[in-house]
Give the backbone structure.
Amino acid sequence: MKLALSPLQQGIVNFLQSNETWLRPLLTERIFDGVDVQAEGDKLANPAVTYPDYYKQDFHSVDGGYLNKDAAITYDPITKQILVPNETFLRDETAAAIPADAKTVLDLGCGTGTATRAIASRLTSAQVTGVDLSPYMVFAAQLKAKSLSNISFIHANAEILPFDDNSFDAITASLLFHETPLHAALNIIKEARRVLKPNGKFVVFDGAQGDALAKLGGNISSSLFLEPYADQFLSSNILDLMREAGFSKVESRPLLMIYEIRTATK
Ligand SMILES: C[S@@+](CC[C@H](N)C(=O)[O-])C[C@H]1O[C@@H](n2cnc3c(N)ncnc32)[C@H](O)[C@@H]1O
């Protein structure tokens, strides 16, 4: 599905395409050298998974979005630059919001697994599972987490999780909800509540919503990075969706003015 681009966005896409030869090495990690990410992702893809329409859009100037292997190959170098002032700090703050005694943790929309690894490294006696709808992201996450024994990844839609009710002590989602339309965000939050154990904690890290600074940041990022659902994210509130899904103790901690860590209890 193609997005209608503004002249600025079209200019960025043209620049990226015509400068691909020298940009690609800057945006690609060496860990993927000599690895056929397409074939490896296709091998682990669950054939029962179907893709919702919203997911088949272009995201971040990548044709086909997360269903293009290039999304997985370029994600980490770009994210490291975008997550100001320091990605490691933000990942650690998110992991620190999970109860220290959690033994089973699920990370929704785990992408290449950077947040998932931060959780598994912090909670060494927990079993941590990452779920993502892109088989290429899942493959990248597996490759990058090889040194950790308490982590695993699966290809699944977080709107229809392949887990029993009451399975996890804690569930996280980092940078997921600004990428989904509101109806999908609500489905995912309801699924998170279903598979959480009673009193389990849900932790959501993403951009701030609602105030003028958040809107400015969101508008810049949706113009520059082609974020198809940033407008919906900025005009809504994840805390309301958590309440609507039945969570209690719904709270938000602003982080460095442009991010928020939201927490809720089943
Ligand atoms: C911006 S990335 C965030 C990745 C990672 N959590 C992080 O913090 O870097 C959003 C991720 O959400 C995934 N995603 C979007 N919709 C999803 C869904 N319905 N189920 C599972 N993953 C989904 C995308 O494939 C992508 O990897």
In short: The chain has a mean pLDDT of 89. The chain is about 40% helix and 20% strand. The pocket of S-adenosylmethionine is lined by residues 55, 66, 79, 109-111, 114-115, 131-134, 137, 157-159, 174-176, 179-180, 184 (CB under 6 Å).
